[in-house]
Amino acid sequence: MNPAEGDALYFVSRGDGTHHFSRTLREHNNAVNRYIRNR
Fold first, then answer.
1. Of 8, 39, 1, 6, which is closest to residue 25 (Cα–Cα)?
2. 3-class DSSP state of 12
3. Residue ranges per domain, the chain?
4. Cα angle vertex 22, ends 30, 25, to 5°?
5. Which residues contact residue 7 at a Cβ distance below 8 angstroms, ignoring those fewer than 6 apart?
6. What does the angle CA 28 – CA 1 – CA 9 come to, to the nearest 5 degrees?
7. What confidence tens digit (pLDDT) does each residue in 1-39 have?
8. DSSP letter string over 13-28?
9. Are residues 6 and 21 in contact, defined by beta-carbon separation less than 8 angstroms?
10. How far is CA 36 from CA 4, 6, 23, 29, in A?
11. CATH architecture of the domain with range 7-39
């Protein structure tokens, strides 16, 4: 694998083929909560 350079450690798969990447656990948890509310 050759991942793109970046500082994201976390990601949320949105279920539509896209992803949201986060740098911190707080950002990740917020993204997870948004995903859960909007599905």
1. 8
2. strand
3. 7-39
4. 60
5. 23
6. 15
7. 787 889 999 999 988 999 999 999 999 999 999 999 998
8. E-SSS-EEEESSHHHH
9. yes
10. 27, 26, 19, 11
11. 2-Layer Sandwich (3.30)
